[in-house]
Amino acid sequence: MVHFPHFLIVLVINFLLIVTDTSYAVEFQECNKFSNKDSRKFSDCLEYSFSEAVRKSEFGKIQNWLKNNPESNKNKYSDYLTILMCGNHADMSEGSRPFKAKNRKEIIKTTDMLLKLGASFDAMPMFSIVTPLFCVSNRRDSQVLDYVLTRIKATKKDLDSCPYEGTDPAHVPLYRAVLNNDLKSAKILVKHGATPDFSIMENETALKVALENNNIKIANWLLDIGASVNKKDENNGCSGKSVLDYALEIPENTKGRKEIISRIKMLMLLPSNFKEKCKK
Fold this sequence. Notes:
With 280 residues, the chain is an all-alpha fold. It folds into three domains: 21-53, no CATH class; 73-195, Ankyrin repeat-containing domain (Serine Threonine Protein Phosphatase 5, Tetratricopeptide repeat), CATH 1.25.40; 215-280, no CATH class. Helix content is 49%, strand content 0%. It has 14 helices and no strands. Helix 4 packs antiparallel against helix 5. The two termini are 42 Å apart.
């Protein structure tokens, strides 16, 4: 018998509900017809209405509903926060599309309301495979990101983590910001405690992914703040590709290639770097 992941089953069920169930409405007040009849339909209807309001940038409508219609199930507020930051069930964009600048103020206000009602950036609802914290790091919006990290008092522990099954470096916030070539967000993450050299798998660091993607500007910034140049990919940093190897693979006609290669070679010779010993 084939066993499918739980989150995939949930996504399929939600998709079928959206296309077949007449309980879905665009206006929040339309959901009231289910409030005393079917709690599941009432909850699904509200979630769909919230998603539609986000899609249409109708944040005033959302804020009015949140103010006047408190949820008895506090976990639902984390579901709404996930939709706001990550996208809806069918979207699965994990926040990969930037927020519209004109909506930034209202997104921040809506976020603040949800947090006051009990939403959490660390929650992972059944329909999602990432947290709102990862998604806001993936939005390429340093202003919203800075607000969120300040508002929730984010710590190094919060940022040096991978919300996606614990093994995918592309879901570490700083790593993803670098992967997005988003220097502003990367700086915000480090300001709030993200570790430049943090890795969860074979020393896959932000510096290596910057070099691998020819992001020389970000690579130089990471070197400025002390990113390691000595750890290799395998065997606890003792073998495999090095930072220099990644730099040498940058196409020869790339601006800044020669300079960053020279810089890495010089850093590798500094006495302070000899303290980084292999632990086989």
